[in-house]
């Protein structure tokens, strides 16, 4: 009897381990389509549209031994090493913060481009630099956090990334600088003693952080975007189209269920994203009729290094054929390509 109990106990431990232990791998699979007007509201905007603009997601989960083995048997589940998902220099929290920053930037660009296309003015303000991650062994370790917004350095306003680079270039190892920053909506001062930047052969004095521009945009009418549960830049194109659709009296959707993906860049071009094959599968499953896919160009250098690499559009077309969807896959290099396609559509 005791022997049986021991065997059962071991089996329970093994099963729990297989189902709960987290591996250094992620599983990507098709996500869902989400009507963008649920996330984006233009003040007094036109919401009387017969169709819909939809952003696409992929589902990402950290693998356990059980889900890892299961994913290997599934055609449309992809196993990814943690280094393919997360920058080796960042931890989980910094990864999440970077994803939210990418989403924030995509919202900024979407507003900027949509208002530009609608012939409306915007006011852009540079707010400082946003800390993406703090390097281990760097000067700022234990002093700055990912998500901090640096506003001034030694009393001088940080009005561009280049200003910060130039300011630090004039400093020596061991010099101290005082940073005025915003953290969790509260402002404070932090003094940092400059040290060599980790993971480089240079002995240049630095803070030991990676960072990006922090900008805000003021629009009239106001645009409210609620995207707390979505990270990354890939919804940028669909955000742009939805904002423009609400700004204009016409129905850009023409009554169709329009989906798509792609980073919205500040010049109006549509950037490459990951997981487009899974987004095509999800869009077809959720009844989308039109799918905008970034028609990015693969440079000869990249093609030589990664012979199997292809454009997002090529992957989308191949996936559409595999699943035999009737959904129309439309290549877009710029937001104008998407608008031109919608303009020529006959109303449904």
UniProtKB/TrEMBL annotation:
It comes from Lysinibacillus piscis. The keyword Hydrolase applies. Its EC number is 3.4.21.53. NCBIfam families: SepM_fam_S16 (NF041438). This is endopeptidase La. The active site is at residues 234, 279. Belongs to the peptidase S16 family. It catalyses: Hydrolysis of proteins in presence of ATP. Keywords: Hydrolase, Protease, Serine protease.
């Amino acid at each position: 009897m005791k022997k049986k109990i021991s065997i059962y106990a071991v089996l329970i431990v093994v099963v729990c381990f297989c189902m709960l232990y987290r591996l250094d791998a992620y599983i990507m699979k098709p996500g869902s389509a989400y009507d963008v007007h649920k996330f984006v509201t233009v003040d007094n905007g036109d919401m009387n549209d017969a169709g819909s603009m939809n952003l696409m997601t992929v589902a990402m989960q950290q693998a356990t031994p059980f889900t890892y083995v299961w994913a290997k048997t599934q055609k449309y589940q992809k196993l990814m090493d943690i280094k393919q998902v997360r920058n080796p220099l960042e931890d989980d929290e910094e990864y999440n913060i970077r994803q939210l920053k990418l989403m924030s930037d995509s919202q900024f660009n979407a507003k900027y481009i949509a208002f530009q296309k609608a012939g409306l003015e915007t006011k852009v303000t540079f707010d400082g630099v946003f800390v993406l991650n703090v390097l281990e062994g760097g000067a700022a370790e234990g002093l700055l956090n990912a998500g901090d917004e640096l506003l001034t350095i030694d009393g001088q306003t940080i009005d561009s990334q280049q200003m910060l680079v130039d300011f630090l270039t004039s400093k020596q190892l061991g010099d101290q600088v005082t940073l005025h920053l915003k953290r969790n909506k509260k402002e404070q001062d932090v003094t940092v003693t400059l040290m060599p930047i980790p993971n480089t052969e240079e002995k240049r004095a630095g803070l030991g952080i990676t960072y990006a521009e922090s900008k805000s945009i003021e629009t009239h009418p106001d645009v409210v975007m609620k995207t707390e549960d979505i990270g990354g830049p890939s919804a940028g194109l669909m955000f742009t189209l939805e904002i423009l659709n609400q700004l204009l009296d016409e129905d850009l959707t023409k009554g169709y269920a329009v989906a798509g993906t792609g980073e919205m860049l500040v010049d109006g071009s549509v950037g490459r994203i990951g997981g487009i094959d899974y987004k095509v599968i999800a869009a077809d499953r959720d009844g989308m009729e039109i799918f905008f896919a970034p028609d990015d160009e693969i440079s000869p250098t990249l093609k030589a290094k990664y012979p199997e690499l292809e454009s997002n559009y090529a992957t989308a077309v191949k996936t559409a054929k595999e699943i035999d969807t009737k959904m129309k896959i439309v290549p877009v290099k710029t937001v104008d390509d998407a608008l031109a396609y919608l303009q020529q559509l006959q109303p449904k």
